[in-house]
Design a protein that fits this description.
The complex is a heterotrimer of chains A (785), B (166) and C (426). Chain A has 785 residues and is α/β, with parallel strands linked by helices. Chain A has 26 helices and 32 strands. The chains are: A alpha/beta (785), B alpha+beta (166), C alpha/beta (426). The complex binds flavin mononucleotide, iron/sulfur cluster and FE2/S2 (inorganic) cluster. Iron/sulfur cluster (SF4) binds next to helix 14 and helix 16 of chain C.
Chain lengths: 785, 166, 426
């Protein structure tokens, strides 16, 4: 530790800390603009000057490291004059438009002008006006207000990895700008207005609608992806106006999806009252009538229950209680992306924290469009890439990451077994092996060179595997994951404290869901098949949309066409056309509850935002349902429900009770002794189908958000894509072609793209390729007219 | 200028390949390659900048930042003869301001403008690093030291007769 | 070797061969001693010995800051596992300076030889000369000389069979004064806008692409061959203690024979101007002398006898800087001069630091008004405050340079300024 004196007070900080950080750590206020704890130091605003005894000029505290015995003064007359002058320089060209500026009330320039400025500027010359530029659907620019702190430039470079904001010209002609006519290509762009200390970059959706001081703030959890960021929901009255990241939480940023989805909270897509079908329409009724209809449809029937993993833990328990009380034989499903329901050697969830992943010597992303799925994890990988740490990847497409990938291979999903086998041979040749190796190797005929990428990474001291959707939704997933598990064991990456096995989950809470529902869990595909086969009398969907999401839209449609649907949830969505009854449940912005993110952290939401209509927290809807359908209500309040949840899951209880919430993490399930080997491939179709996960379109909430839909249309690709060679080999070129799958034949527009692996049919836009989402293999059989 | 016409020749590309090897990273070759583009295409149009970015594997923004930072990179065409008069201290003390006025009068343009025949552009520049020979006029980067209204007039006459043939 | 005490008899160090026709070609340069001592250095000297000689010589950086060169070299960490780079600062942009240009266009092999020796001492295998873009001719001369040196195995692999290899590349700037600042130079050489970096880390530790890097001025490097050939003690015996050796002074402005003069340190300003430069154009004493390039504070007639040393210049209230002496006789308009220099700094500020970006433009705009007789008494106060709070509060010293002429003008010629104000003009 280095000790120094700040304003005569002796303090200790880690060596290498800057004076400014030392001051911040010890609660000493030093004004600054360009410094940002998450960005590199620029030291250009010169507001953070301090005096150091023995130095002949003031020092910029943000870029001056502390040294032993240093005597720092942060408040002297001379510094006050310097700060006053910096303010005067900055205000030379700054417009005096605080009353109409959205940043007003939350503006560093305004605050410091009051604190450090003089009452009157002395600049008498013409002011500069600066041209604005387009930063996409979420960010407005008013560049005349820019103070050139370059935070946004550093953000675009270092965090978003797009680098498309830059500094043009020099001297007082220097301007911050984007590339003309191009929207910022980042799923983190909504952070820019937060990063800007003044009103130059502003939140477009909330532009001119509210002022900071009118807002009430609630701490909550975003459920838009399994990262489960802490969020601050800002509301005016009962209306959510903005969603913001939370200061000092493990993740300082949030993604655009989590931030802008709020416009779906009050959209027409919300279910705000109980409804029952009458002919073509769903009509609002009171709760009693809706439950009467529900009872009629479900009482003593064979039902299948499908729900979203994104409800709070309490909600999940309530679903289980509802099932146990009313439908003790029912199968439930919550995962729309898993085809193989056999036990996985390592189940969904991360065994490492994001920070540990970032620290690992090697990170290998297997089959995932990580940037679309987990943009904030991607951001961490980018950060580690900047620090020179490698990230390797194997996948069906050269997914764009905005970072340099050290080792990259593109493969067809059917080659995964050969890839893993190749890696096994390589590590075995280096003397590392595990009990099941030989059996596994014997079962796989081929070897694929991409395995080298994996094996090379495995040879490091610490290696984090990020196993993605291409493997998880593989038909032979359990065997592949077993193979990866063997590799990790062989290379010493499977011990408790150094466990690099991370299976990316589809949604929140997966570690607890396995525990709550493990014994009654089925595949969504099985449920749909059962419904279509007449083995079920009805389906209950709780916040899930198998038509818009997941791998079974065609099967889901068939099932929904054959049995009645009771839809419970917050968003109506396209499945509402099948619904016989709709029961409104509260959005995550309207509840109190706990969530478990992919790392196993407990994230708590407590949102006193009142309901917009008649929706009730899910657990209340479930209990009421039990009650009206004649069951015995197991819990009557949240405390009881939580106790019940605790009893069922001791690991959850421990994490919940920990005073330091993030100190106890809930580990994902590990299943020893899985001895699965890959099945023989049957090559009926030449191409492997891979479906894109679209950041802006996946999930009911995102589709209900106009803002996200608009952004999605900017970042859209052709509907179906293949590598150019794939078409050339068939004597075809881009255009409308007939595709055959086990479901039959249909025509699609097929575009080409170099970064798709040869042999892969990439479905970039679900829904359009409706049938294609259900299949894992296909053949192009020729041009259509 | 269309995007198609802004392409480096194969010789240039070979030259660039050799150049890149002299640096730890290709980005270092950006300024020399911009000079090549400016020489080949007259000025650095957006197409030219994009092409340079592609050749060196950089983002357009990285190129834009450099082009706009340095005064010797031009985003607009200029006259066949670019007359850059230093008016900084050393030259100013030796009559540079008067020389600029004289040249502008002779050519009938203001500072920063190009004559209508596209032959001459006159600009004022910062210290040329040749104050011992003040005043200094750079003509397409060739230094004319101890320039006087007479020597510049003579130059302009000569250039006109040569330039007309170009 | 004993050194004559009369400075005029001392052989010049950097300009020793400067008047020899065609000495820019390798053969002529060799006839006159170029690369003569290089094999000895490569064979018999080691890094420590070279650095010691340079330390003993007392030579201080000729680029402006006057930092002792041997000391700077000794800061370079060894065995970091990263390459070390040597960058020659040939950006020569400080108004008034034009000395490096002469070394490069007339005696390029002197610089090359100095760089090989410095590179050898520092374990450098890739060296660059960052030359200002306007010096196209000089860059061409350097490139021709470098090509000849490569052909003669003076550069490239295994130089003269010594086992030491070094590549040398000329890199042209493109019109930005600030790139003469060493960290801006590094940024520029990395293919970016030349915006200075804050220190620490210092370039010696983390410079070009994050590797240990030495940046030295042309003249500094051109001194090295003589220091090694004749010994550090020899060099230290020229001039006066702490201000040793010769220095090239670029003299311009109102003198009869402007030009570059290499004289021993300690020669007086007056001697230089009267004996070498043929005196002033008008009058007998200068009105203003800017002794070290436009960024240094002004001296007046009363300082005419000041010896040209780093220390004496500081005592007189200015700095030796790069040795660019701008002389103004009684005809000079100090307001116009200040306004012009204000324009220069406003034009050249890289734009990153608030005080410099906004302050330089502000100063210029006020100065334009003052020059045109539209200034007010208040402007004087603003000029003073705006300039004072730029200096020493920014990343690089450009802002200090911008403040210097304004503050000098206000300090020394308040009456001339007041005479131009609105009220006075009316
Ligand atoms: C604004 C500014 C401009 C500079 N310009 C030059 C220059 O043109 N040439 C130069 O050698 N040093 C210049 N310097 C000084 C360099 O930063 C650096 O001190 C010098 O190159 C070190 O070399 P030396 O130790 O051999 O003098 C400049 C410094 C500043 C602050
Ligand atoms: S002082 Fe001026 S030139 Fe130097 S870094 Fe700051 S803004 Fe750039
Ligand atoms: S915070 Fe230190 S200079 Fe901006």
């Amino acid at each position: 530790m280095t000790s120094l004196f700040i304003n005569e007070q002796e303090v200790e900080v880690t060596p290498g800390t800057s004076i400014l950080e030392a001051c911040r750590e010890h609660g000493v206020d030093v004004p600054y603009f360009c410094y940002h704890p998450e960005l590199s130091v620029a030291a250009n605003c010169r507001m953070c000057l301090v005096e150091v005894e023995g130095w002949n000029k003031p020092a910029a505290s943000c870029c001056t490291p502390v040294s032993e015995g240093m005597k720092v003064k942060t408040a002297t007359e001379s510094l006050e004059k310097d700060r006053q002058m910096v303010m005067e320089y900055l205000l030379i060209h700054h417009p005096l438009d605080c009353p109409v500026c959205d940043q007003g009330g939350d503006c560093k320039l305004q605050d410091y002008a009051v604190e450090h400025g003089t009452s009157k500027g002395r600049y008498a010359e013409p002011k500069r006006a600066v041209i604005n530029y387009d930063l996409g659907p979420f960010v407005n620019t008013c560049m005349t207000r820019c103070i050139h702190c370059t935070r946004c430039v550093r953000f675009a470079d270092e965090v978003a990895g797009t680098g498309d904001i830059g500094v043009l010209n020099r001297s007082d002609h220097m301007t911050i700008t984007g590339i003309v006519e191009e929207a910022l290509e980042s799923e983190l762009s909504g952070n820019l207005p937060d990063v800007c200390p003044v009103g130059a970059l502003l939140d477009k959706p909330s532009h001119d609608v509210s002022r900071p001081w009118e807002m009430t703030r609630h701490h909550s959890t975003c459920t838009q992806c399994p990262n489960g960021c802490d969020i601050q929901i800002e509301s005016r009255g009962d209306e959510v106006m903005r969603i913001q990241p939370v200061e000092n939480s493990p993740e300082p940023w949030i993604c655009d999806r989590g931030r802008y989805v709020y416009d779906a909270f009050r959209s027409d897509h919300r279910i705000l009252s109980p409804k029952v079908r009458s002919g073509d329409e769903l009509v609002s009724v009171d709760w009693g009538d809706a439950f009467a209809r529900t009872t009629e449809l479900l009482k003593d029937k064979r039902v299948g229950i499908l729900f979203s993993p994104d409800w709070s833990v309490e909600g999940q328990t309530a679903i289980r209680l509802m099932r146990d009380t009313l439908f003790p034989d029912a199968k439930v499903a919550y995962d729309l992306h898993r085809r193989d329901m056999r036990v996985f050697a390592f189940e969904e969830g991360f065994s490492m924290t994001t920070a540990q992943i970032a620290d690992a010597d090697q990170v290998v992303v297997l089959g995932s469009d990580l940037r679309q799925r987990l943009p904030l994890l991607m951001q961490r990988l980018r950060k580690r890439g900047r620090a020179g740490k490698p990230v390797s990847r194997i996948g069906a497409m050269n997914y764009r990451t905005n970072m340099e990938i050290s080792n990259d291979a593109i493969i067809r999903p059917r080659d995964w077994a050969a890839v893993i086998a190749r890696a096994m041979e390589q590590v075995r040749d280096l003397g590392k092996t595990a009990a099941g190796f030989e059996n596994w190797l014997k079962a796989v005929p081929g070897r694929h060179e991409a395995g080298k990428v994996l094996a090379d990474a495995l040879m490091s001291d610490s290696c984090a595997l990020l196993v993605g959707e291409e493997i998880r939704s593989h038909e032979d997933a359990a065997a592949l994951i077993n193979g990866l598990d063997l590799l990790m064991r062989a290379c010493g990456h499977a011990e408790a404290e150094n466990d690099g096995r991370n299976l990316m989950p589809e949604g929140m809470n997966t570690q607890v869901l396995a525990a709550i529902f493990g014994d009654v869990r089925a595949s969504a595909g099985e449920l749909f098949a059962a419904a279509s086969a007449g083995e079920l009398d009805a389906l209950i969907l709780v916040g899930s949309d198998p038509v818009g999401d997941g791998l079974f839209p065609t099967a889901a449609k068939a099932a929904l066409a054959s049995v009645p649907l009771v839809q419970i949830g917050a968003i109506s969505g396209q499945i509402s056309e099948y619904a016989s009854v709709q029961l409104p449940a509260a959005a995550y912005s309207e509840i109190e509850g706990a969530f478990v993110n992919m790392e196993g952290r407990i994230r708590v939401a407590s949102n006193p935002i009142k309901s917009l209509g008649q929706e009730r927290p899910l657990w209340k809807v479930m209990m009421r349902m039990i009650q009206v359908m004649g069951g015995e209500v197991p819990v009557v309040n949240l405390t009881e429900l939580r106790d019940m949840t605790r009893q069922r899951m001791p690991a959850l209880a421990a994490a919940w009770d920990a005073s330091e919430k993030d100190s106890v993490l809930i580990a994902p399930a590990r299943n020893k002794g899985v001895e699965l080997v890959p099945a023989k491939a049957t090559d009926k179709f030449e191409l492997d189908v891979v479906s894109r996960y679209s950041f802006y379109r996946e999930g009911m909430w995102a589709r209900a958000s106009d803002l996200l839909s608009e952004a999605g249309s900017i970042h859209a690709m052709d509907d179906v894509l293949v590598h150019p060679d794939t078409l050339t080999a068939l004597g075809l070129s881009a255009g409308e072609h007939t595709v055959r799958t086990f479901l039959g034949e249909s025509a699609y527009y097929i575009g080409v793209r170099e970064d798709v692996s040869p042999g892969v049919l990439f479905v970039a836009k679900r829904g359009v390729g409706g049938d294609l989402s259900d299949v894992s293999a296909a053949s192009i059989i020729g041009g259509a007219q | 200028m269309s995007a198609e016409s802004v392409r480096f020749s194969d010789e240039r590309l070979a030259e660039i390949e050799a150049l890149v090897k002299r640096y730890p990273s290709p980005q270092s070759a950006l300024m020399p390659v911009l000079y090549m583009a400016q020489e080949d295409f007259g000025y650095l149009s957006m197409d030219a900048q994009q092409m340079v970015a592609d050749v060196l594997g950089l983002r357009l923004m990285q190129v834009r930042e450099v082009v706009t930072f340095y005064t010797m990179f031009r985003e607009q065409p200029c006259g066949t003869y670019l007359l850059e008069v230093c008016t900084n201290a050393g030259c100013m003390l030796n009559g540079a301001n008067e020389l600029v006025s004289h040249m502008c009068d002779t050519l009938g343009i203001s500072v920063g403008e190009t004559t209508s025949d596209g032959l001459f552009t006159v600009t004022e520049v910062e210290c040329a690093g040749a104050c011992g020979g003040a005043p200094v006029v750079q003509v397409n980067n060739i230094y004319h030291e101890k320039a006087t209204p007479e020597t510049m007039d003579a130059f302009i006459v000569k250039a006109r007769s040569e330039g007309a043939g170009k | 070797m004993t050194i004559p005490s009369d400075p005029k008899q001392v052989k010049q160090i950097c300009f020793d061969r400067i008047n020899i026709p065609n000495v820019n070609t390798l053969s002529v340069a060799r006839e006159h001693g170029a690369y003569e001592f290089l094999p000895t250095v490569l064979k018999e000297f080691d890094s420590a010995r070279i650095i010691d000689e340079v330390k003993t010589s007392g030579v201080r950086g000729r680029g402006g800051a006057g930092f002792p060169t041997g000391l700077k070299w000794s800061f370079v960490p060894r065995n970091t596992g990263k390459p070390t780079y040597l960058l020659c600062n040939a950006d020569e942009g400080e108004p008034g300076t034009f000395k490096d240009r002469d070394i490069m266009r007339f005696d390029p092999h002197l610089l090359i030889e100095g760089m090989i020796m410095a590179g050898f001492a520092l374990g450098v295998h890739d060296a660059y000369i960052y030359i200002r873009g306007e010096f196209l001719h000089e860059a061409n001369v350097m490139n021709d000389a470098i090509a000849e040196a490569y052909a003669a195995n003076l550069l490239g692999d295994n130089i003269l069979g010594s086992g030491y290899s070094m590549n040398l590349t000329v890199h042209r700037g493109a019109g930005a004064y600030v790139c003469g600042e060493e960290t801006a130079l590094i940024e520029s050489l990395e293919g970016k806008p030349g915006r200075p970096r804050f220190k620490p880390p210092f370039p010696a530790v983390e410079g070009f692409y994050g590797c240990p890097t030495v940046v030295n001025n042309v003249e500094t490097l051109a001194t090295v061959p003589a220091i090694l050939k004749f010994g550090g003690d020899w060099h230290a015996s020229i001039g006066i203690p702490n201000n040793t050796g010769c220095k090239i002074f670029s003299v311009s402005g109102h003198v009869n024979k402007p030009g570059n003069y290499e004289v021993p340190m300690g020669t007086s300003l007056k001697t230089l101007i009267e004996e070498y430069c043929g005196g002033l154009q008008h009058g007998s004493v200068p009105k203003v002398v800017i002794p070290g390039g436009s960024s240094t504070p002004w001296l007046l007639a009363e300082h005419y006898d000041t010896p040209l040393t780093y220390d004496d210049m500081v005592k007189a209230g200015s700095m030796l800087g790069s040795g660019a002496i701008i002389v103004m006789d009684e005809t000079a308009d100090v307001v116009a001069l200040s306004r012009r220099l204000a324009h220069f700094y406003a034009h050249e500020s890289c734009g990153q630091c608030t005080p410099c970006r906004e302050g330089t433009g502000w100063l210029e705009r006020i100065m334009v008004r003052v020059e045109n007789g539209q200034g007010t008494e208040d402007d004087i106060q603003v000029l003073k405050e705006a300039a004072t709070h730029m200096a020493g509060r920014t990343i690089c010293a450009l802002a200090d340079g911008a403040a210097a002429p304004i503050l000098s003008m206000l300090e020394h010629f308040p009456e001339e300024v007041r005479a131009r104000l609105v009220e006075k003009a009316a």
